[in-house]
Amino acid sequence: MSNIKPVLTRQNLCDEAKLFASIESSVYESQLFGVSDGKAIGTYFEQKFRTYLSAQYEFEQGNSAKGIDFPSINVDMKVTRITQPQSSCPFKSARQKVYGLGYSLLVFVYDKIDDQVSQAARLQVLHTVFVEASRTADYQTTSGMLKLLENGANADDLVAFMLERFLPVDEVQAFQLAEEILVNPPKLGYLTISPALQWRLQYSRIIQYAGAVEGIEKVL
């Protein structure tokens, strides 16, 4: 009898994410009781899901050098609370606001429920959404650029738009990006990407449009 595990695919990942989210939503953990640190909760959930997957599938484990959780299928996992569904990701360049992050996202959105009697907490997963890499650009940036292009914008118009929106580019970089946009217009993105030391990704729109827009799949 073979012990070889199947290789993890995007479809496996989404199927297992749905099942895991349903199971995890009913599990009470004493170690989470009273914990309000979103990063600690996210790390706990991500590690538990990776362990769950490792028991069934072969896949390359992500690390800080690669920057994403599932490099072999080009997917990063994000875990965020419904009260403020957002997280951070490494900043690479302003192009990410226009053309997307360069990888897909699997986003778990939870609400944390503390039970005072048992002194334990559970993470009720309210939404699980898979966002294709092509939809991970910034909504306002891409929608604005697409409107400009519809109105016959040239490189100068696009550069002015980028500088008005404080994209982290200098004028030379802005012109290079504008020339690329004229040849290769971006797809409409559905994240809100705020500049900081890292990008801050906000997910309200993908929750709203999950299952209604191509490239944004409602897993749960």
| Main β-sheet, spatial strand arrangement | 1-3-4-7
Question: How can the largest sheet be summarized?
Answer: 4 strands, mixed
Structural class: alpha+beta
- Mean pLDDT across every amino acid position: 93
Strand count: 7
Number of helices: 7
Content of β-strand:
15-25%
Plain-language structure description:
The protein has 220 residues and is of the alpha+beta class. It has a domain at 10-84 and 103-134 and 211-218: PvuII Endonuclease, Chain A (3-Layer(aba) Sandwich), CATH 3.40.210. Helices cover 35% and strands 20% of the residues. The chain is built from seven helices and seven strands. It has helices spanning 10-24, 38-54, 95-99, 139-150, 155-164, 171-183, 204-209; strands at residues 75-81, 86-89, 104-115, 120-131, 192-194, 199-202, 216-218. The strands form two sheets. Strands 1-3-4-7 form a four-stranded mixed β-sheet. A three-stranded antiparallel β-sheet has the order 2-6-5, with no helix packed on it. It is elongated. The mean pLDDT is 93.
Compact description:
With 220 residues, the protein is α+β, with helices and mostly antiparallel strands.
Topology overview:
Layout: H1 10-24, H2 38-54, E1 75-81, E2 86-89, H3 95-99, E3 104-115, E4 120-131, H4 139-150, H5 155-164, H6 171-183, E5 192-194, E6 199-202, H7 204-209, E7 216-218
Parallel strand pairs: 1-3
Antiparallel strand pairs: 2-6, 3-4, 4-7, 5-6
Key descriptive features of the protein:
35% helix, 220 residues, PvuII Endonuclease, Chain A, 4-stranded mixed β-sheet, alpha+beta, 3-stranded antiparallel β-sheet
